[in-house]
Amino acid sequence: MPATSSTQPTTHLGRTGVEVSRLALGTMMFGDWGNKDHDDSIRIIHRAIDAGINFIDTADIYAFGESEEIVGRAIAQSGRRDDIVLATKFFNGMKKKPNYRGGSRRWIIKAVEDSLHRLRTDYIDLYQMHRPDEHTDIEESLGALDDLVTQGKVRYIGSSTFQPSQVVEAQWSARDRRTARFVTEQPPYSLLTRGIEADLLPTTLRHGMGTLVWSPLAGGWLSGKFRAGKELPTTHRSDRDPGRYNLENPAIKAKFDAADQLGSLADDLGVPLPHLALAFVLRHPGVTSAIIGPRTMEQLESQLGAATLELDDATLDRIDEIVPPGTNINPEDAGFTNYWLDAARRRR
After folding, report:
1. Active-site entry in 62, 127, 156, 245
2. Fewest CB atoms within 10 A around its CB: which of 24, 86, 165, 261?
């Protein structure tokens, strides 16, 4: 049977020596994309900090800067900036104009200043490249990021949703050019999306990187609401993207069936499915923190105790029977679209 304790555990962020909570607060749902009430969002952030979460992750693209503004206000009001490890990201297009996106030196230098302003801080603890940039040499991006580290505007740098070969290329480039290196990678990982177990997690472990996993509840599929015999729930995410919840798609039907079986397993264990889901991803030795993304205070409270849940071998074996190790039930959940498989590139 699983066991729980009452503390909020922490661990080290790769080999940086920085100590972070095993649950990180993701803020994509604060602002126009989710909770539009800024004061309520700030209360949720303050509650997370009070509960022992010292790691907050955001991005410039979340509600096009609005999320960063909310996070900046919340941290300023808390008076605890020095206690918080603050992470944000750049890459996605902030305007429908050229040069307001990507990994170029030109954009990185502009993007970091914009984020610093919105976050009301003079430094970012972890500045992450939100996706790999097929149009920009990684040396270009690392060179600009290295300058930000030297200037003190950024403490550490990381990547997000890079493929294993891209992680290795970035590590080798940083070594050869003697620039700052990515100390973290941020991929998707959940009970339903286990693809990173096959190659990415071993790769980040070999390079001493911290791994911060996003969507550990699989976009709400592991909330406990997706069960056989019940009407398919309407959620904030399903309203935004109904196609990803269409059970006529065989991959999505398979995901629903697996979520139902995992829900039954959680019932047998006497724990909420979200706790089982979060405890599972945190059990992997390559995972540093799981990024939770609550939209409401209730959602936050329902996840706070998960990091102290311990899973026994029998439970892990049963999970492996439901979702085989190293597999994604729905390949579209991998978070990365391989542009090299586009027809125009294959049939040149």
Report:
1. 62
2. 165
